């Protein structure tokens, strides 16, 4: 009789477990309670007799999305409307990735524009349709920033181990702390991940060196290890805070992933000239 009671209790516990909501696997965001299906999808596009699409349109959309496009769904939260979601359209938000251009369909060479036509990336050979979900997995992943393994779809970066350490972990309500530059230590893999699309960079002898020690010839360790204003990001395989003898220059030392107001999405450390970025590592 006691065994039967234990068996019944086990079945009840199992039933309750199956009825509980399943957390979405996530690296930083779009996990568990920070993402619900109805944030992005609508079954019937109707609530209280009104459309549930963010743009108010009554027509249904492929994928049951709550906007006319997938980008529109992402920007319904990440376009400045939601305080707990990073604003990818504003440079003032201070995101390490920067900000997309005001005209998303016409980047003008300064950013990753979110257009609909395939484009060949600079120093790349594979056309890519640039969308939010080209680089990020909307349903979450265990990767840093929910980054996809291969944004180009070629699997060139599929085996890349991407490691970025964070002191403050996302909890759904702390984007300011999580996205602060001082919270991030880039350890490995980011340059190789970027070259999934910009693959010809590796074979270009005229390109700037990457993953090269700031103590190497051509760099000024004395300058870098001194008092540097608006210090740019670096990679540190030892996982040490900057400035460290293990610091290396990498793609994000000079460029922001989403974009900037400057050619090549370049970082102007002092906001006035590109020289202010170059001078952090070189004696000009």
**Biggest sheet descriptor:** 2 strands, antiparallel
Shape: globular
Helix proportion range: 10-25%
Which regions contain 5 or more consecutive residues with pLDDT less than 50?
1-26
Q: What structural class do the secondary elements suggest?
A: mainly alpha
Distance between the termini: 85 Å
Identify the strand order in the major beta sheet: 1-2
The assembly state of the depicted protein chains is single chain
Short description:
The protein is mostly helical and about 280 residues long.
Structure in words:
The protein is mainly alpha-helical. It has a domain at 112-284. Helix content is 20%, strand content 5%. The protein has 9 helices and 4 strands, in the order ααααβαβαβαβαα. It has a two-stranded antiparallel ribbon. The longest helix has 18 residues, at 2-19. It is globular. The N and C termini lie far apart (85 Å). Mean pLDDT is 85; it is low at 1-26.
Write the SSE topology.
Elements: H1 2-19, H2 37-40, H3 70-78, H4 132-135, E1 163-166, H5 175-178, E2 184-188, H6 190-194, E3 212-213, H7 221-224, E4 248-249, H8 251-254, H9 275-278
Antiparallel strand pairs: 1-2, 3-4
Key traits:
single chain, 284 residues, mainly alpha, two-stranded antiparallel sheet, 20% helix, globular, disordered N terminus
